[in-house]
Amino acid sequence: MHALAVIHLKDEFPEIYAQTWYTKQTQLQIYFNFIRQVRGPKQWVSLSNMLPILPPTLRRPPGRPTKVRKKEPDEPQTTERLR
């Protein structure tokens, strides 16, 4: 059985089984000086010499199935679509 399920069945808190360095409070204290809030685009650092990031070009990968079935040479070439 999963450990958290057992802890829940025993009506205990999972926090007492976790080490203190895994808690949110400890992580906030560790990274307090390294992570700063950015409230929006006005606070973003502007880099004038950086090229704009463009999305990748879309191309069909090789080996992809064709849209129309390849017909045998003796089959009639129809342009009708089935519904």
Q: From the alpha carbons, calculate the radius of gyration and give it in angstroms.
A: 30 Å
Let me know the number of strands.
0
β content, as a range? Answer: under 5%
Series of secondary-structure elements, N-terminal to C-terminal: HH
Major sheet details: none
Mean pLDDT: 83
Low-confidence stretches: none
Morphology: flat
Q: Which structural category do the helix and sheet elements fall into?
A: mainly alpha
Helix content, binned percent: 10-25%
Cα end-to-end separation: 52 Å
Q: Please, how many helices? A: 2
Keywords, please?
83 residues; mainly alpha; 0% strand; flat
Describe this structure as you would to a colleague.
Residues 71-83 have a biased composition (Basic and acidic residues). Residues 55-83 are annotated as: Disordered. The protein is mainly alpha-helical and 83 residues long. The chain has a domain at 3-37. The protein contains 2 helices and no strands. It has helices spanning 3-9, 24-30. The chain is flat. The model has no long low-confidence stretch (mean pLDDT 83).
In short:
The chain is mainly alpha-helical and 83 residues long. It contains two helices and no strands. The model has no long low-confidence stretch (mean pLDDT 83).
Write the layout of secondary structure elements.
Layout: H1 3-9, H2 24-30
